[in-house]
Amino acid sequence: MTHLRRFREGVGPHAVTVANCLSSCDFSDVVVVRPARGVGARPVWLGGVLTDEAVGHILDWVAEGGPGRAEMPDGLTGHLIDRPADDSAAS
Fold first, then answer.
1. pLDDT tens-digit profile of 17-66?
2. Dist CA 22 CA 30 (whole Å)
């Protein structure tokens, strides 16, 4: 199963947006995990999401509440990247 399909099945097709470029091409595949509305947390940018394990960690984190509601799994800390200064895709 593709990672995109896993994300769509895990969080719902309307919660997944695909973009050609997030100005972070050096960190492919990039996933931006946005917090629930009203939580007061910032989106978390993750790069190098190329394994089933990383996708699983993201899906588990989102199921537990995601940014601002649940601690990020240790398995994702190595995937943290900075949001590009010239990007507004995940504002």
1. 888 777 877 888 899 999 988 888 999 999 999 999 999 999 999 999 99
2. 8
Burial annotation 20-50 (CB, 10 A radius, 16+ → b, else e)? eebebeebebbbbbbbeeeeeeeebbbbbbe
- Residue 57 has what pLDDT? 96
Decide: residue 91, CB within 10 A, 0-12 exposed, 13-18 middle, 19+ buried.
exposed
User: CA 70, CA 61: separation in Å to the nearest integer?
Assistant: 7
Token pair listed for 63: 């199921």
| C-beta separation of 24 from 45 below 8 A | yes
> H-type helices in the chain, by residue range?
3-11, 52-63
Question: Which H/E stretch holds residue 31?
Answer: strand 31-33
Question: According to the per-residue pLDDT averaged within each range, which of 9-13, 29-33, 75-79 is highest?
Answer: 75-79
